[in-house]
Amino acid sequence: RWVLSLECKGSRNFMSALRRAVEVDFKDKDKHKSQGLYLLTTGIPDQETHTISAYVAEACGGLDLQLHVCLFSLTEGTDSSGIIPARYANPRETANAFKEIVQAANGRFHWFGEAGIFESDDITSIISEVEKAKNYSQKCAFLVESLKQRS
């Protein structure tokens, strides 16, 4: 709700934003069965990953709250204005940090770039389901074929 009133400005102070969302603006949380927060980002937070993961695990642990991250990789090493951020990490390090944070929050991680999708928990899940269906179909076909041979 409050996000719609915000103006775009630069900061990677993830902890400040998360605290505000969870402790101040996450009103009526007891009235909902499940809620999710979505972080859309282009870089690593200023705070250390283990600090954020510990806070996220605690904040989400008592609620049915999940944190999902969509990481957009732009030009490696720079933000949209071409300035290296205060805390730099290469795209792989950034993705690994957010995957750790998301795991602590029982959420999902998605990593996109100019070239397309690098990694997505949803797509991985879909591929896994398709593989299970394919394996099941092959087993059924084998069973039907072996029954035909017996008759």
Keywords:
151 residues; single chain; four-stranded mixed beta sheet; alpha/beta; VWA3A protein; 4 strands; 4 helices
What's the arrangement of secondary structure elements?
Blueprint: H1 14-24, E1 35-41, H2 49-61, E2 65-73, H3 91-104, E3 109-113, E4 116-120, H4 121-150
Please, could you describe this protein's structure?
By secondary structure, the chain is of the alpha/beta class. The protein has one domain. Helix content is 45%, strand content 17%. It has four helices and four strands. The protein has a four-stranded mixed sheet. α1 (14-24) packs parallel to α2 and α2 (49-61) runs parallel beside α3 (91-104). The radius of gyration is 21 Å and the shape is elongated. The N and C termini lie far apart (65 Å). This is VWA3A protein.
| Overall structural domain count | 1
Strand content: 15-25%
Q: Count the helices. How many?
A: 4
Determine the oligomeric state from the structure.
single chain
Low-pLDDT parts are none
